[in-house]
Amino acid sequence: MGKEVKNVEYGLEKIFEGAQDFLPLLGTDYVEFYVGNAKQAAHFYKTAFGFQSHAYAGLETGIKDRASYVLKQNKIRLVLTTAMNSESPIGEHVKKHGDGVKVIALWVEDARLAYNETTKRGAKSFMEPTVEKDDDGEVVRSGIYTYGETVHIFVERKNYNGAFLPGYKKWDSDYNPTPTGLKFIDHMVGNVGWNEMNTWVKWYEEVMGFENFLSFDDKQIHTDYSALMSKVMSNGNGRIKFPINEPAEGKKKSQIEEYLDYYESSGVQHIAVATDDILTTVADLRSRGVEFLSVPPQTYYDEVPERLGAHDHELQEDIKKIQELGIMVDADEEGYLLQIFTKPVEDRPTLFFEIIQRMGARGFGAGNFKALFESIEREQELRGTL
Ligand code: FE2
């Protein structure tokens, strides 16, 4: 620890001193949702978010127990999977949690090594290293459980040239809505139960070699009514960032508690996707029917110059347009960022998306937490869950 490690072969550079290097991660490989109707969900992500048809597995490809649609936009791959019979654990997952994220897959050089290193350190096995082959080569995958019923699957694809994974065929569609400028996954946030945040922080440190590089307590993250705590975990090269939230006591019910009630366990709260032109992306998403949390009040925008501080003169975007679209602004020592949050994308108030554009800032919009949570509370009020 503490030494500068450069992995020349993969261009990985260690940026977090305390993070360990027994689990080199090349990036997010895919995110798999278990859903009630994958065909319709795929249509939604294409139409509303501009994802592209990429690969498919199901009855037509010899898969009997499930159907999976793979969607792609730049570096982001979403897999939407549904059960084909009542015996399926996929169906059980949907019955308990509703639609939600089952798999956060991580791209690795060696899936056997990733499995051995993490299970040796206490990870619970989900899938032993498994070789899958077809005419395009072979993929090795292995998997471990993280919080709730969520899993990390390690994907080794250096000997594979196919569209996605063996068993999938390329999906050519006649319906191809234009992309909305979503580039890659910036971070993925997990909600865990009361007093469990530090357990999972320790788990990511010990089992995955991550480092806790930012922390927010309930004194920083609260409104008049509710509160939460959050710690941000990162792997060594900074490509994978997993903030972990837990509820905190307030006068009313925390949004994290609402999530836990409806997801019926810990799970993924939001997926933050990066764009390099948030004004165009958000205008496009809105026109396609994506619903965002309500626009912050005028007072919020009056305070933007103050929030930007030393970075005020760097703001390249028109503040009027930012306000019209309901986008939020925050800054840290290194720069500023623009962000906005969708409403939950399913009927249960569980998973939602964040759209983020970083202009130097590496933070998570702490200056926006209060305005954001007040906006969520207005929604909770309508749901009767505050
Ligand atoms: Fe976020």
List keywords for this structure.
single chain, alpha+beta, 2,3-Dihydroxybiphenyl 1,2-Dioxygenase, domain 1, 2 domains, nine-stranded mixed beta sheet, eight-stranded mixed beta sheet, globular, binds fe (ii) ion
Q: Give the names of the bound compounds.
A: fe (ii) ion
Query: From the alpha-carbon coordinates, what is the Rg to the nearest angstrom?
Result: 20 Å
Described by strand count, sense and barrel closure, the largest sheet is: 9 strands, mixed
Number of helices: 10
Q: What is the correct CATH architecture of the largest domain?
A: Roll
**Oligomeric nature of the chains:** single chain
Q: Which superfamily, in CATH terms, is the homologous superfamily of the largest domain?
A: 2,3-Dihydroxybiphenyl 1,2-Dioxygenase, domain 1
- Sheet/helix structural class: alpha+beta
Q: How large a portion of the residues is in β-strands, by DSSP E?
A: 25-35%
Strand runs, count: 19
Give helix % range.
10-25%
What is the count of distinct domains?
2
CATH topology term of the largest domain: 2,3-Dihydroxybiphenyl 1,2-Dioxygenase, domain 1
Order of helices and strands: EEEHEEEHEHEEEEEHEEEHEHHHHEEEH
Q: Outline, from the CA principal axes? A: globular
